[in-house]
Amino acid sequence: MFKGIVTVSLKQDVLDPQGQAVQHSLQTLGFPEAQNVRIGKSIEVWLAESDAVKAESRLKEMCDALLVNAVIEDYSFEIVEA
Amino acid sequence: MRCAVLVFPGSNCDYDLYKAANSVEGMEAEYVWYAGDSLDGFDAILLPGGFSYGDALRAGALAARAPILKALRQAADSGVRVLGICNGFQILTECGLLPGALHRNSGLRFICDTVSLEVSNTATPFTSGYAERAAIPVRIPIAHGEGNFTCDAETLRKLEDNGQIVFRYAGDNPNGSVANIAGISNLKGNVLGMMPHPERAMTDWMGTSDGRILFESLRGC
After folding, report:
1. CA distance A8 to A48
2. CB-based contacts of B141: which residues, under 8 Å, 6+ apart?
3. Does A66 touch chain B (CB under 8 A)?
4. Is B218 left (phi over 0), alpha (psi -120 to 50) or beta?
5. Does A30 touch chain B (CB under 8 A)?
6. Nearest 5 degrees, angle CA A57-CA B52-CA B38?
7. Tally of domains in chain A
8. Looking at residue B188, which CATH number applies to its domain?
9. Which of A38, B89, B93, B198 could bridge across to B84 with cysteines, CB 3.0–4.6 Å?
10. Which positions ≥6 away from B177 have C-beta within 8 Å?
11. Is A14 in contact with B58 (Cβ distance < 8 A)?
């Protein structure tokens, strides 16, 4: 069994209004060094698969098929034993 | 003209759309459930607004992979008219029938309002009826939190060059969309996605009947 952890982020050139609002809030709270905030998401997928290489390639297929919208999002992932 | 109104779990403008289409003479609408596999015999397919699958993952993402989508793609490829409104538009971009993506409004707020629209292309089967009054902004309601249309520069250039930008916000842009885009079509012109709700603008007591022209154009083609 493996667990895939997919980190999805908005592409750098896509405006992130949520991140902007959070950055503003951080500044108000006394964190002037928080110059830029981008909000993404983390998706964990448990795979009933014994081969790490296979698990990785299936996870990539899932990202392309559904988990990530390549028009506005980038992603990276890692596979760990679960 | 036979129209299918697709119904997904979480659609909530399906009844409005069904009523709107059925109120147009010569148009007959019926519901088609998302789990179906056939859209044979329909002249137009309408995707309603709402929150299909509760907007899980991304707005429209799961509906764009629902069983009925196979039949929708086949119908679109064969030239059948497809209209996606609000969540329907999100589904059409998610499934790739339309380019770009719709994400969070730039002001973060969900916006419910009636807006002015410029009909940028009256040569589509959905907008031909607006030709005579192209100079007058069309008033149609919007209600969305994720209507901020975005695409890369190359895609935008193609949309502009090919006349695929069908509706633009004429006054203030409510959601931060690129080039004030409110609705686009595919290259062939038979698939239209738009954030405004024409089905909520069918009679004067609704505040505006400007949406009716869209349905009448569709019926006329």
Report:
1. 22
2. B112, B113, B114, B115, B196, B197, B200, B201, B207, B208
3. yes
4. alpha
5. no
6. 80
7. 1
8. 3.40.50.880
9. B89
10. B147, B148, B149, B150, B169
11. no
Return the CATH number at A27.
Answer: 3.30.1280.10
Residue A18 with chain B: CB contacts under 8 Å: 104, 108
**Residue B163 region, left (φ>0) first, then alpha (ψ -120 to 50), else beta?**
left
Residue of A10, A15, A65 with shortest CB distance to B176 = A15
- DSSP collapsed to 3 states, B26-78: CCEEEEEECCCCCCCCCCEEEECCECHHHHCCCCCCCHHHCCHHHHHHHHHHC
Residue B175: band (very low, low, confident or very high) from pLDDT cuts 50, 70, 90: very high
ipTM of the modeled complex: 0.89
In this complex, is the C-beta atom of B151 within 8 Å of any C-beta atom belonging to chain A? yes
- Give how many domains chain B has, as a whole number: 1
Query: In this structure, which amino acid lies at residue A65?
Result: A
With tokens 């667990």, the residue in question is: A3
Please indicate, yes or no, whether the overall pTM of this predicted structure exceeds 0.90. yes
For A43, the domain range is 2-81
Q: What domain range is B147 assigned to? A: 2-220
Helices (H), B50-152: 68-77, 87-94
The 10s digit of each residue's pLDDT in A23-60 is 999 999 999 999 999 999 999 999 999 999 999 999 99
| C-alpha span between B81 and B40 (Å, rounded) | 13
